[in-house]
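Let us work through a complete example step by step.
Step 1: write down the sequence.
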Amino acid sequence: ELKNDFPTLHSQFVVTLWSSLENLIFTVVEDRLLNEPSLFRSKPWCDLKVRVGEFVGLDDHQRASHLASLMDQALSAPLKGGVNRFEALMAAIGLTGVVPEELGKAIFELQQVRNLLVHQRGIADKRFVSSCPWLGASVGVTVHVGSSMCNAYLVAVLAYVGELVCRNAEHFGDSDTRKTMFSETPIRSSNETAGAPNPAPEG
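Step 2: predict the structure and record it as tokens.
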């Protein structure tokens, strides 16, 4: 572990970071539904199909959570890559915006590495190699997640959350938050901050 920069610990961090971002996005959607019921009269919410029997027994917070999950499925958001997985839901609640290219690339990489860890035990397959060619991984080689990768992913997630905070502020007429919230720090994918990940032969 020490020789390889604690790959198990960092792998757990990557999985947790992605899950935390997903949970945050759903919380944003649910809060918007609770505080802006006018959304239900506009697309795509007004076209959402709901099972009345399941819906009537829920309290307000449970209804918001249920509707957010249904919309996520209706938009096929789980099948989208990187920030597009979240931007689909943000568009549904009127919080659309532009994601800088490097930020989008870093979060896409985070998603792909997370999926590789969860579904392939970290062993690079053709899909991963094709999706993230800049990482220089080879099919059949284990991708060891190091501290530089985790740092890059954390910075990217924080930057994206900051972007959502700015969008929300602008939605309510606050144009100053974007100017003052963060200094301009470039977002880079992990291979740009400290080289490619540490591939090691399986076994």
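Step 3: interpret the result. The two ends are 14 Å apart (CA to CA).
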